[in-house]
UniProtKB/TrEMBL annotation:
<feature type="transmembrane region" description="Helical">
    <location>
        <begin position="762"/>
        <end position="787"/>
    </location>
</feature>
<dbReference type="GO" id="GO:0005886">
    <property type="term" value="C:plasma membrane"/>
</dbReference>
<dbReference type="Pfam" id="PF02687">
    <property type="entry name" value="FtsX"/>
</dbReference>
<keyword id="KW-0812">Transmembrane</keyword>
<dbReference type="InterPro" id="IPR025857">
    <property type="entry name" value="MacB_PCD"/>
</dbReference>
<feature type="transmembrane region" description="Helical">
    <location>
        <begin position="338"/>
        <end position="361"/>
    </location>
</feature>
<protein>
    <recommendedName>
        <fullName>ABC transporter permease</fullName>
    </recommendedName>
</protein>
<feature type="domain" description="MacB-like periplasmic core">
    <location>
        <begin position="20"/>
        <end position="201"/>
    </location>
</feature>
<feature type="transmembrane region" description="Helical">
    <location>
        <begin position="720"/>
        <end position="742"/>
    </location>
</feature>
<feature type="domain" description="ABC3 transporter permease C-terminal">
    <location>
        <begin position="293"/>
        <end position="412"/>
    </location>
</feature>
<feature type="domain" description="MacB-like periplasmic core">
    <location>
        <begin position="440"/>
        <end position="603"/>
    </location>
</feature>
<dbReference type="Pfam" id="PF12704">
    <property type="entry name" value="MacB_PCD"/>
</dbReference>
<keyword id="KW-1003">Cell membrane</keyword>
<dbReference type="GO" id="GO:0022857">
    <property type="term" value="F:transmembrane transporter activity"/>
</dbReference>
<feature type="transmembrane region" description="Helical">
    <location>
        <begin position="288"/>
        <end position="309"/>
    </location>
</feature>
<feature type="transmembrane region" description="Helical">
    <location>
        <begin position="21"/>
        <end position="41"/>
    </location>
</feature>
<keyword id="KW-0472">Membrane</keyword>
């Protein structure tokens, strides 16, 4: 029976090549999108799960509260882990990760910049699983100032030669390379390139042999703890209360503060929803839900195409069904045979989809365009193979079940007489499915356009300072910093350069956080502020403006005598006039005073509102040299700066970037998300158009005699197009009306992630419907045009 069904199926598919091709194309695109999406989701949802001890590794983060102060931090005091290990037997070991002071590696008088350098503990390789290419993973960090490096760093420093026992310089210290590990997988929340054994102890943590509780309130490193098997999180937190009271609260009571410990499992960190200000980049679980819905919608659209084309062609198959029934086929066997057709087509589409997904992932630039990176490892994941097979079976059933039930109902007598006509209910089902297709396609396209409007709004919004024509030169090397005055004087002689400044902090990319004492309600109160540090040229260089008072002149003798705040800070403190208000750092004995109020500007990305800010004077050269230049001939400017730099600091490479590009990078994740959704929306529309092409071609072929008669009676081609297209036009407009509020609601929820939101563009909603109308009209027009070109006698000769 199966052999007979297969013959019937192959014969029918071969006879109807056009419709078979359309079905295969739609199903292949739908299943390909599903396979890619499954691999993407598997990669995203398996963050940090490749570590051998992932189920027992936890990270400590902290919520600190006090009057005027509240912040979540992913960092801990480096004294915390050793103290906990002494008092809690359930801790097996720990590893702290403290950022290096400089982000540079020097080897044989050549300096390389590398940002991901951390000091750590010997058991770091028990916390994070590293695949070593050189060295012994168990002992590589046993000795102080030993260092392990990634394969990328090894090749940059030593080429293809061995790195073991080579001496390199980091942070002004000579360290010995004891291991080289393979580059970390992309799906890890904490990426590092260099690990140095030995976390420096802080002198102020112990005073005269007595532990200083304040040290625990000053986090400086990421803390990861490996717990023993059977660890009970609830019991640990209950026991921690006594530790908290003993070590945290002595200082906590001084500042009327509270401390709360959070324990995060390693695999949960990347998609943790709690906002932590200094955390590593996180994923957005809402995006995964959106991508999954759109991916499944594409597959469902392909199923709808199959259903529509199968039921629409019922009239052509009526005689075949009638003959098979007369020859003894019962209703059940017919249903199974028709369902078998869909399974065969879905199976062929699956093979094509696997090949397409493999080419897309391994040999195209699609992943780089989306900012994602994972391999085609489908056959190494049995769970995914099983899920895809289940998906294919469901696709075959969804695609073939209704057509099988529908076609099996055909009455053999009417079919053989040639007067079988499709029921009105069948037509309504097809119209309903077409409507659903357009609701999805127009909705996704509308959402994509609204997302693009929001991203364009963010990139073009005024920030309150000049982000363009700002060149940032990294000068973390101590020699480069000592040469700052020389460089500044030479740079300022260039007519293309307007201003030069220096700082460790940049608005939009690097902002500090400090607790101050401020005058409020007639007394000095503690208050947390965001902070920037800059010299006397800082304001001019960034084009910021003052609302009140003055900025630093450069003759200030110390950095804690005068302060400049922003409007938000003055407003929060209730200062009608901020000038001469008392202010100082937390431990400052002689308070300074406020000398100026700068107009508010966005010193974070536009995901965040403007917060209270203090600009602190620092006349010492910072790690960044900031150059403001006039527009035009940037290549000549860079060449001149490079020449001056190499002459002044010959052994230190010029490392520069443009501030506006760095600010655009803040929205890279949003841009990638929009690119992915744009790709999916195009795919949605394309799959819908595939089905619409087949349906239109069939409808036109069924009405070819009507078209011939109308041509004989003098109808123009455009009039025929209007008649054929009018029903579809009504469906598209209705789909637009349904999808517009849904798209608006979804994008409104997405835009809540931003403090500043673009006004809703109704033009984007209208343009989506117009695009759908124009594309559909084009398809119908082409098909009608080819049909109407034929001589009417060809279609009417047998009437």
């Amino acid at each position: 029976m199966n052999v007979i069904n297969l013959k019937f199926t192959l014969r029918f598919l071969w006879r109807n090549k056009f419709f078979t091709l359309l079905n295969l194309l739609g199903l292949t695109l739908g299943i390909t999108a599903s396979i890619w999406l499954m691999l993407y989701l598997k990669n995203e949802l398996s963050y940090d799960q490749y570590h051998e001890n992932a189920d027992r590794v936890y990270r400590f983060s902290h919520l600190i509260k006090a009057p005027g102060v509240e912040f979540n931090t992913a960092f801990s005091a480096n004294e915390l882990s050793p103290m906990l290990a002494e008092e809690f037997p359930e801790i097996e070991t720990y590893a702290r990760f403290s950022p290096a002071n400089t982000r540079e590696i020097t080897f044989q008088n050549e300096t390389f910049r590398e940002r991901d350098i951390f000091y750590t503990d010997p058991d770091a390789t028990k916390i994070f699983t590293l695949d070593f290419e050189e060295g012994n993973v168990k002992s590589a960090l046993a000795e102080p100032l030993s260092v392990i490096i990634s394969k990328d760093i090894s090749q940059r420093l030593f080429g293809n030669g061995s790195a073991i026992n080579k001496i390199i310089e980091i942070d002004g210290r000579n360290v010995k390379v004891t291991g080289v590990f393979k580059n970390q997988p992309e799906n890890t929340h904490f990426k590092f390139q260099v690990l140095i054994s030995g976390v420096a102890q802080r002198e102020f943590a112990f005073q005269d042999g007595v532990f200083n509780s304040e040290a625990l309130w000053n986090p400086d490193c990421a803390n990861y703890i490996l717990m023993k098997p059977g660890f009970d999180k609830a019991k640990f937190l209950e026991k921690f209360k006594a530790f908290n009271e003993k070590y945290y609260m002595p200082f906590g009571r001084v500042v009327s503060g509270e401390h709360f410990l959070r324990i995060q499992k390693l695999a949960d960190i990347h998609y943790d929803t709690v906002k932590i200000e200094d955390d590593f980049p996180k994923g957005n679980s809402n995006n995964l839900v959106v991508f999954t819905i759109i991916g499944l919608s594409i597959l469902f659209l392909a199923c709808i195409n199959y259903i529509n084309l199968s039921t629409a062609r019922a009239g052509l198959r009526a005689r075949e069904i009638g003959i098979r029934k007369v020859l003894g086929s019962d209703s059940l066997s017919l249903k199974m045979a028709l369902l078998f057709e869909s399974v065969v087509q879905v199976s062929v589409a699956l093979i094509l989809s696997i090949i397409t997904a493999w080419l897309l992932i391994e040999y195209s630039g699609f992943q780089a365009l989306l900012g994602v990176s994972f391999s085609f490892n489908l056959f190494a994941q049995p769970d995914l193979i099983g899920l895809i097979l289940l998906l294919v079976i469901c696709t075959g059933l969804i695609s073939g079940l209704y057509p099988a039930l529908y076609l099996a109902k055909i009455k053999p007598v009417k079919a053989l007489k040639g007067n079988w006509v499709a029921s009105r209910s069948g037509n309504w089902v097809r119209r309903g499915l077409v409507l659903f297709q357009f609701v999805i396609s127009i909705g996704v396209l509308t959402g994509t356009l609204l997302m693009k409007d929001q991203l364009n709004f963010l990139q073009n919004k005024e920030l309150g300072y000049d982000k363009d024509q700002i060149l940032v030169i990294n000068s973390q090397d101590s020699l480069a910093q000592t040469k700052f005055k020389v460089l500044k004087e030479v740079f300022e002689q260039n007519p293309q350069i307007e201003a030069v400044s220096s700082s460790n902090f940049l608005p939009g990319t690097n902002v500090g956080q400090t607790v101050f004492m401020v005058e409020k309600d007639g007394e000095m109160q503690q208050q947390e502020f965001k902070t920037l540090q800059g010299d006397a040229n800082y304001l001019e260089t960034f084009g910021m403006t003052l609302k009140e008072g003055r900025f630093y002149r450069g003759d200030e003798t110390r950095g804690n005598a005068y302060f400049v705040v922003n409007e938000t800070a003055a407003r929060m403190l209730g200062w009608e006039s901020a000038i001469d208000k008392r202010m100082g750092f937390f431990h400052q004995e002689e308070f300074g005073r406020v000398i100026g109020v700068v107009n508010d500007f966005n010193f974070f990305s536009l995901h965040n509102p403007i917060e209270p800010l203090v600009i602190v004077f620092n006349n010492q050269p910072g790690s960044r040299l900031i150059v403001r230049f006039r527009q035009g001939n940037e290549e000549k400017l860079i060449a001149g700066i490079k020449s001056i730099w190499e002459e002044t600091i010959p052994n230190y490479p010029l490392d520069y970037s443009f501030l506006n590009q760095s600010l655009r990078d803040q929205y890279e994740a949003d841009k990638n998300q929009n690119t992915l959704i744009t790709s999916m929306s195009i795919l949605c529309i394309f799959v819908s158009l595939i089905g619409l092409s087949g349906l239109s071609a069939f409808n036109v072929s069924q009405r070819r005699k009507e078209i011939g008669i109308r041509k004989v009676l003098g109808a123009m081609t455009r009039q025929i197009i209007h008649i054929i297209f009018s029903d579809t036009l009504k469906i598209i407009v209705l789909a637009g009306v349904i999808s517009a509020p849904i798209s608006f609601w979804v994008i409104s929820k997405w835009a809540e992630n931003f403090a500043y939101q673009a006004p809703v563009s109704f033009f984007s909603m209208v343009i989506s419907v117009v695009v759908a109308i124009l594309l559909t009209l084009s398809i119908v027009s082409i098909i009608v045009w080819f049909t109407s070109r034929k001589n009417p006698t060809e279609t009417l000769r047998y009437e």
